[in-house]
Amino acid sequence: MNWAFELLGLRPDADAASIKRAYAQLLRSTRPDEDPEGFQRLHAAYKTALAQVNTAAPAVVAPPPPLGSNAPSTPATPSTATRPEPQAVAQPRPVPTINIGALAGEVIRVATGDSRKLTAWLQARQEFWSIQVKQQTAQAVMQRLFQQPQAMSAESLNALLKFFDLDHVLSGINPYALQQLRRRQSLQWELTPEHHYELMQRIQLRRNGRPDQRALQHYLALLQQPLTWLAVVKTVLRGGALDRLGHFLQALCQGHLDDLPASFDRRSVQFWYKANHAGAMSGPRFAVNTLRVIVIGFVCALLASIVFAISFSAGSMPGKDALRLASTFSFAIVGGVVGVWLMIAGWIYLDDWQGLPESTASRRPWLRRLLIPALCTIGFGLHELGASDYIAGPMVFVSLFLALRRFRRRYAPQAPRRALRLRAMLPWIYLCGIGISALIHLQTDSDFPVVPAAFAVTLCTWLADMWRHRAHVHPRFARS
Fold it and tell me: Which InterPro entries match (predicted)?
C-alpha cells in the first residue's frame, strides 16, 4: 500500500496526524468540481493510508543473548533475526452506504427555507464530495420536485440548479418542464401567508394605494372553496366584482391554470376563468350573462309596474285593468330582454363554431362545413317558391355574414398581410349587406335580384374557404 503514502508525499512509517495534514494540504489544489478523478484517487489514498496505520502491528525483533554466557553467539540470519514478521495486508474500511432518498429530502427541506443559507449548507456536506453521490442526489431531487412542486423561491431554485450543475441546456432537463416548475414553485411560495405581500405587489392588488389584504383573502377563499350558485349570484350582483375576480385570476397564474396548487378547487377555477374569458361563448360565460340579463329584465319590469301603479293612483285607469296591463307588460319586458340575449348568445356561439380551424377535433365536422350552404340554399329555395322575403331574406343574409366572417377568421393566420386588407374591407361589406337587406324589406317589388346575388356571393365565399382547407377534407386534395 506504499502507493497511498507516495501519493500523499509521506514515508511508509508516517502516523495518522501526518496523513491528515498532508491530505488537507493536497485537498486545496485538488477540488472535486475541478478534478473529479484526481479527487477520488486522493480520497482513496487517504482512506487506505489511515486504514494501514490503524491496523499495522509492530515488527518482531529477536532478543539479544544473555550477558555472561559462554555460548557462542549465533549470527542472526536475515530471514530470522533482522526480517520482521509479515504483516497482515491492510484492508480499507468500507465506505458507509448513503441513503440518497433521505439526502434528497433533506436538500428539498433546506431549499424551501432561506436561499442565502442553502449554498453554504450544500458546500459543507461531505457527501457531495463524491461525484456519483452528487449526481444521484440531483436526479432524486429534480424527480421529486417535478412530481410534487414545493413552495420555493426563484433564488433557492437557481442556487440548487447551479450547485448540481443543472443550470445549462446540456443538463438533460426539458427546458419547458423546468420553466413550468419555476412557475409552480414560485406561485406556491407567494401563496404562503408570510409572502402575501410579494404576491400583492406582483399582481398590483391595491386599494387606496396600499396592498389590499382583505380582497386577497376573499379571492383565495372563493377559488379554494367548492363552487356554489349562491356564491355565483352574490359575485355577479356586486358591481364589478366578477371583472376584478377575473383580473386577479389572470394575473395570478397568467392563464396557466394547471400551475395552481392542489388547494384550489379545479371546478371553481375553471368556472370563474371561463366566465371572464372573452371570445368563445362558453357555458360559464352564458350562465353569468344570462343571470345579468334576467336581473336587468326584472328591473325594467319593476319600473314598468311603478309607472302603472302611479297611473292607477291617479285614477286614470281602473284597478283591474292597471294590474292586468302591469303584469302583462312586465312579463313581456322580461321575455323580450331574455329573448334578445338568447339571440345574441346564439349568434356568438354559431359564429365561433363556424370560425373554428379545420384541424380542430370535432364529432361532426361535416355538419359545421355544410351548415352555411344548407342554410343559404333553403333561403334561396323559399324565395324562388314565392315565400315572403321576411323569411327567405334573413336566412340568405345570415348565411352570407357567416361565410364572410368564416373566411376572414380562417384566412388571417395563413396570410396576415392580405388578411389585414380583407379585414379593412369587411365592415363596408357588412354595411352594404345591411343596406341591401333593408331595401328588401322596404321595396319588395324591386326588380334587382338581391337574394340570388347574395346566394351567389355566399356560395363563392364558402367554396373559396373550403378550397383553401381542402387538405383537411381529404388527403388526396392536398396534391392539387
Answer: DnaJ_domain, J_dom_sf
